[in-house]
Fold this protein.
Amino acid sequence: MKTVFLLFDSVNRLMLEPYGGQLLETPNFKRLAERSVTFDNHYIGSMPCMPARRDMQSGRHTFLHRSWGPLEPFDNSFPELLKSSGSYSHLISDHYHYFEDGGATYHTRYNSFDFIRGQESDPWKVMLEASIDRIREQYHPSQNDPASKQNPYHYMINREFIKEEADFPSVKCFSAGYEFLDRNRNADNWFLQIETFDPHEPFFAPARLKEKFQTDYEGPILDWPRYERVTEPQDEIDELRANYMALLTLCDELLGKFLDYFDEHDMWADTALILTTDHGFLLGEHDWWAKNRMPMYEEISHIPLFVYHPDHKDKAGQRRKSLTQTIDLMPTICEIHGADIPEEVAGKSLLSLLEKDESDREAAIFGYWGGGINVVDGRYTYFCYPKDMQNQELYQYTLMPTHMTKMFTVEELKSASLVGPFDFTKGVPLLRVAHKSKADTKTHSYHFPEKMVDTTTVLYDLETDPGQTTPINDPQVTERLNAALFRLMAENDAPAETVQRMKESLLD
């Protein structure tokens, strides 16, 4: 069997025409929907980028036990499992987080990988400080805060070396994909993952696409929203949204050329195709930008998924209402390639849903480590927060003590003790490391609970209020979703302190 997995980053589902988007044309996402099965109730698991990818590779939720970090030694990884079934796996990505401390074990699970440089703050090109002032002058002051990012100027420098459309990292990712297919499409038993950072911020698109979304904004480059509430004047809001739409248009065009390749070489006859994203992105909805800090509204948590399988080509254009999640991708890929699905996997293969829209999943949970835990059942979504986000008993459970860009500090590790195992660690104990508040820091602190806001437990009815404007009070629904939450935490062997703080919040 052959499979292509297309993974974009930070796709706002409601911007896509197959999901009702009306602000821009996405003809190639429509074209894919007409060929494939579209999943209408597909949700994230763990947030943000690398936790989501751990969910994808392992088929389990990360967020109950761990924040941002690498794959663990006990994790089941679908590329590793494909090897045992005789399938070759290849990753093409410009997602530079794979090459930081907190992502360093993911790409090496594949048989081979190709890394495209230059996205966002990828430490790629070097220009000495004497050149920085000239470059900084081109950008809005909000993108010039040295305290806000690991290195706020890497992305500015990288852009100096992206002159032609062919230089864009996402374009290079797909070009590398064609190279792989030109050499290998006639072989059997392979898995190709083409993964691009776009349309993740900064929203940098070719000028010809930016011209399609003109605004009244006349200031310096503004294409990187703050992870904050919307406070900008209207022209800046319009500019940020326009730049996102231009970049999403590029993604649509890249998808279209890829579908052309499938058509030209009749790959629909013997190759599965899956397309999704890791999470969504707020573009001013609910008066918020981005992700991580605010409640996980539908724009963040409810994501697109398209699945094509040659054995189910007669289901082209159909839609599925069954509740699905990111953790379902791993067992799906394993089943496509005839690899055994380990008992630790919590996700469920989607292949049966291609044939018939019936699922036994009554509810799903998703969240950030240490933050709220959301429960969704397809109609209602329930934001469940601990009472005190600032003073929780909170631990990281890991054998790979790294954060996003650095190792755990010596001071953090002084609190470590050996505990466990959990039911998914294959009898292996783990380090339990007490969380040290990042409340007084800025660098990458948005991944931690003390920086989250609007942390109020609320219930929304998505049928009557799809925009989540007005919380409701329905004790019967709340009781049912509370029961689902604690059942799913038990099924995922959530730490005792996590269960306790949710009991104190929801049941006391």
